[in-house]
Structures are given as structure tokens and as C-alpha cells.
Amino acid sequence: MLIKIVLVALVLYMIVNLFMAMRIMMKNDTSKGPMSKYIGRRVLTSAVIVIIILIAIGTGLITPNPRPY
């Protein structure tokens, strides 16, 4: 259950970074840093999510569905 809470928190963090980058892009506001900083955080968060899912499946903390239907 803890793994799922961590994954949901990471997805929410990724969405927040997406909207922060969008706000900078729309306002052309460079005082809060470059847009690539937020996009980079989003990509890094995506990679961390994939790694956590692979480790959790490998260790047996979560089990995938045996059949997709």
C-alpha cells in the first residue's frame, strides 16, 4: 500500500511540474528559472516511477494482472 501512495505522490509532483512549466511558457516569465528545469524534473520523476514499479514487481511488493482482460 505504501508503494502505491508513493507512486501517486510522484505522479502528482510530475503534474505540478508540468503546470509550472506551462505557466512560465505562457507568461514568458524567466524570473522563476528556465522552463527546462521543470520539464527536466518531470522527466526524472517519470524515470523514477518506472524504476520503482520495476523494483516493486521484481521483489513481489505488487503483482501485475496475469491477464489483461
Describe the structure.
This protein is mainly alpha-helical and 69 residues long. The chain has one domain (2-59). It has two helices and no strands. It has helices spanning 2-27, 35-59. Helix 1 (2-27) runs antiparallel to helix 2 (35-59). The two termini are 23 Å apart. The model has no long low-confidence stretch (mean pLDDT 88).
Distance between the termini: 23 Å
Shape: elongated
Give the count of structural domains. 1
Beta content:
under 5%
Quaternary state of this entry equals single chain
C-alpha Rg, in Å? 16 Å
Number of helices: 2
Largest sheet: none
Q: What is the residue-averaged pLDDT?
A: 88
Look at the helices and sheets and give the structural class: mainly alpha
Q: Give the % helix.
A: over 70%
What is the count of β-strands? 0
Low-confidence stretches: none
Query: What is the H/E order?
Result: HH
Keywords: Membrane, Transmembrane, Transmembrane helix
Pfam families: DUF2909
Protein name: DUF2909 domain-containing protein
Transmembrane segments: 6-22, 43-63
